[in-house]
Amino acid sequence: MENASDSGKLKIPNHVAIIMDGNGRWAKKRHKPRTFGHAKGAEVLEQTLEDCNDLGIKYLTVYAFSTENWARPLEEVQVIMNLFRKYLEHSVEKCMKNNVRCRVIGDRSRLSPDIRDAIDHLEQMTRNNTGITFIIAINYGGRDELIRGIRKISRDAVQGVLKPEEITEETVGRSLDTSEFPDPDLLIRTSGEQRLSNFLLWQLAYAEFYFTDIPWPDFNKEELIKAIRVYTSRDRRYGGITGQQESK
Ligand code: FPP
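# farnesyl diphosphate complex -> structure
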């Protein structure tokens, strides 16, 4: 385990995004239902949020439920939704205690009204907190978000508020669910898969990617620091030719 002086050498990313994969396989390995893995995943998420906050990370975005996850068996979807109900409700007190500002991204229209209310309540209650911003992606898909954004921009264009040639990266960024947040610096995906699965397609353009075979329910602070150590060693050039600090 790292001590404080070890973590002092790390370059702490401002925004970390996580694809929390492997709950089902983790549970299956233990001869338990997949939903057991999701429940453990929720506990691990709570601890990870605390760890990110302790390390000085300012934004944490997690992929909790994708627009494609509705295709899972109804019973699994229901258990995950019940987990969200419990988690969102319980998070109010926890976020207030730890000064966490909580936001949810994704298309809420397909969520049940009580979950939408719980999200509104959590966002409202925590909006003035000044610690880490915790962003949960629920019924989120990168392509769906872009389509919703393009529709907003098109409406402005049709109404004459915006000329097509005035559309810039900022215009697109502002049309997305993440308009108020900086782009992630580091993406972590657990459990061996090395793909984006429709997560933050626009926002991850310049993020560093870190993949680990560890399933999400086994993720911990040591693993988080390992990811940040790899991030620290990467030379982010943003399309340029040298490190930002170096001269030609
Ligand atoms: C991926 O594992 C996990 C999910 C699709 C659900 C994520 C939900 C949680 C981690 C629960 C906690 C979140 C909140 C906000 C309470 P998988 O089911 O795809 O695992 P597999 O790839 O092994 O099948």
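# post-check
The first helix runs from residue 4 to 8.
The CA atoms of residues 39 and 83 lie 7 Å apart.
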